[in-house]
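@channel sequence for tomorrow's demo:
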Amino acid sequence: MVSVSMETPEQTERRLRRVIAQADLVAFDGVWCFEESPIDWPPALTDDTLAAVRDEQSWSRLVRLTQRHQDVERFGIFSFHFPAELDNSGFVGWLAGVLKARLGTGVFVICGSNRARGGVYDYWGCPIDLLDDALAVVEALREGAR
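structure tokens (generated this afternoon):
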């Protein structure tokens, strides 16, 4: 369930630091990219597919980089699963802002839901060359909240 929190910026910061500390964090091995296909050709959902989304013109599938992928952006991927009892509202904007301020990079986020693991989860992508730095920022935030 989506929560709406009425709180000061300082309260939001404290709450989201607790959220990041309690979330399950996974860093995915390898390099990832988006593979596109026409709207009338839905992508195959293989073991290497982390997400598939579409707009009005095409499908986009987040997959492991292979030799067949040429001239694509290369990403590192990490994810968060949040405990059901935690209010994680505002998390994406907060962490994206922290990563932009500290590393100078934007990120992409793809969200899904798995009620068996608490509900909403996020896949985060950043330029592959900044993955270790992004994970260091995330770990510092997690440690600072414990």
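heads up for whoever presents: The beta strands are 24-27, 32-38, 49-54, 58-64, 75-81, 108-114, 119-127.
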